[in-house]
Design a protein that fits this description.
With 216 residues, the protein is an alpha/beta fold. The protein is built from 8 helices and 9 strands. The strands form 2 sheets. Strands 6-5-2-3-4-7 form a 6-stranded mixed β-sheet. A 3-stranded antiparallel β-sheet has the order 1-8-9. β3 and β4 form a beta hairpin. α4 packs across α5. The longest helix has 17 residues. The protein is globular and about 40 Å long. 35% of the residues are buried.
Length: 216
């Protein structure tokens, strides 16, 4: 078991089986950044008919993960996260609830994870929402969000669970030398992933947000 684990992820296996301190993991986001980018209230901002809104979802098929949705818009250079929700339960029922919620913001398209298969596309389409597959993987989405946070180009809602998930994100170096960003073992990042996806989606769709510097 140990030999196989070392082959798959030497750093993690060394920490788990050999009690060695991991040097390849770093916290992704300074908690001060999250606090500085979080509005005091309200938790959800209602629709403004003059505003164009966007949505990103992180579907879940049940179990411990939440089926999450983030809705937001671009205000000058800043992505405003108007609402973020996470639910457990029947994926079909949640898809309908989210479709109805998106329509209150005039949204008819949602972007989501490519790894969820066809079922979210089919479910949302049943309720009049087209599901577009994201071109970016989870790590790439988080890197986009981190750049926005560092530049003060994002406004987060006052959601304690979202804040905890953002603070717990870890950056580790993969075997190919590429940065991998994810929640710690046993943790969750469903709300954080929806927000990160929304930031990247709005940036891509609008060409907005001023040129932002990546953290060194």
């Amino acid at each position: 078991v140990v030999a196989n684990a070392m082959k798959d992820d030497a750093a993690r296996a060394s920490a788990e089986y050999l009690a060695q301190f991991r040097t390849d993991i770093a916290s992704l986001i300074d908690p001060t950044l999250i606090e500085d980018c979080t509005r005091p209230k309200p938790r959800e901002i209602p629709r403004d008919d003059r505003t164009r809104y966007f949505a990103f979802t992180d579907p879940a098929g049940g179990g411990q993960d939440e089926f999450t949705l983030a809705i937001g818009h671009l205000d000058r250079d800043t992505v405003i996260i108007d609402a973020v929700r996470g639910l457990h339960g029947s994926p079909a029922n949640i898809a309908k609830e989210y479709a109805d919620f998106m329509k209150t913001y005039g949204i008819r398209n949602v972007t989501g994870d490519r790894y969820a298969g066809r079922w979210p596309r089919d479910q949302f389409l049943r309720h009049g929402i087209k599901y577009d597959v994201s071109d970016m993987d989870r790590s790439a989405l988080y890197i986009e969000m981190l750049a926005a946070l560092n530049s003060g180009c994002i406004e987060l809602p006052p959601d304690p669970k979202l804040s905890r998930q953002l603070q717990s994100l870890e950056r580790r170096t993969g075997r190919n030398g590429k940065d991998l960003i994810d929640h710690p073992p046993g943790g969750h990042d469903d709300l954080a992933n929806a927000v990160a996806g929304l930031v990247a989606h709005i940036k891509t769709r609008t060409g907005g947000m001023r040129q932002i510097k990546m953290p060194i």
